[in-house]
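Question (not urgent): is this output format expected?
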Amino acid sequence: MEGRAGAGSRRAGGGLGAAGPTSSGRAMRTPEAPWERFSAWLECVCVVTFDLELGQALELVYPSDFQLTDKEKSSICYLSFPDSHSGCLGDTQFSFRMRQCGGQRSPWHADDRHYNSMAPVALQREPAHYLGYVYFRQVKDSSVKRGYFQKSLVLVSRLPFVRLFQSLLSLIAPEYFEKLAPCLEAVCNEIDQWPAPVPGQTLNLPVMGVVIQVRIPSRVDRPESSPLKQCAQENLLPAPVVLASVHELDLFRCFRPVLTHVQMLWELMLLGEPLVVLAPSPDMSSELVLALTSCLQPLKFCCDFRPYFTVHDSEFKELTTRTQAPPNVVLGVTNPFFIKTLQHWPHVLRIGEPKTSGDLPKQVKLKKPSRLKTLDTKPGLYTSYTAHLHRDKALLKRLLKGVQKKRPWDLQSALLRQRLLELTQSFIIPLEHYMASLMPLQQSITPWKSPPQIRPFRQDDFLRSLEHAGPQLTCILKGDWLGLYRRFFKSPHFDGWYRQRHKEMAQKLEALHLEAICEANIEAWMKDKSEVEVVDLVLKLREKLIRAQDHQLPVKEMTLQRAQLYIKTVIGSLPKDLQTVLCPP
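Got this back:
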């Protein structure tokens, strides 16, 4: 498709364009780039169509200067269409996650670190993967040789805002399929006017005559805080469409076929176990995978996950090899071929066609992996895993009662989400308490010595502490908590949690050390110090200041100002030649 003139021509190489060069990443942009606001939300928008000769083909990428490698283009094409086993007629929405070629690249959007420092860990920008949100349409069309119109509109982002982007697609995709390029260009220009996604703020996002109102969660929010209330101070016309969440799925709907096994699935997620989810369609597979990976919040999901995965994926061989143990990944698939390919995986969840009535669908049964058949495998959770914790019968009873009383699904989801949150918190709180005990006392931090070290995490000491400070204090569930912790220590989630907490504690120590220096009498310290020692102090203070100003240290503004004053005072005490070296004109 040719590039269009108009709004897109405001920018270098602007307008809509077909996929171009094969190098990866975004072209160099000036700080005033007109698409900076757009790129705070989306990397690009893609249109994938079906070509009789080529199969799936990338029709256009917008903005046209966003460069994808050939491998990335191929992945987007295959992941944007349901495979032939799904038989999706009409409109289907789903999502995928794919690796950026070359791994983690420097994000061009400069606010990544600032945003990530304020966002909950589960909502931070993806550093090395793209998230694709797809609206696929397949309808009969006699004007097309194959007899069907088949096209996907794809939003590519590094933000895990599945609820927001699905809502956005449901507004723009039907209009785009009718009006094509002009509509898409206008929408992208509207997104380029949106305010940045700042955690803790409620934002009004205008698009196609509608205002979507969202609140971006912040890491200081209480996990059980109430959903967004409409802002009363603004008389917006038209009245905004208020999204209660940018990211939360309807958990009850996603878990309906597996409610009796939600707790076991939570354990498998906690332990980072490899799991295949085989569903009838990509919308079911992607929603169930995202629901599973979200049930550990507020703990960050540290394993790989693919909400929708196909045999054409560039990582197919890597993830399905039998020469090594299955990787720590949750894989959502729709092709029964994976039953044969992934027979060596320890956990396979197969779900059947959805039941549309209000009653609870037939629950999948626990089955031994040996009962997996290449063809005609029945729905079930195929695993030899034995849960460590006893089943939460009270939760199941409340959910079943809700079904009988026709309780709204959003309330059922809130109940389920709250119970999973409480379960995760009961598991994590003892770890947090033990980790906090490893922090040196503040009184041991002195200004003129390096801060003391954080004591090592000793698993045996922690396990002994559970007798008087374990999860039994906050959770009524009985079971083998010790065994669950022992397995957790071997999982990627313990490693991810420990690294993050250790990093935060080290930064806190450094901040306390900087405060101690700023509260000390620096003139008295300098009296008997050599020039080398004084210069060393200046360099160290400057390094701490740079880190603090770059949002890497939790330091008060007053401390920063005092540190700058100290640096000035110390440099002023040095000979003129050294002052010139440290503060060149």
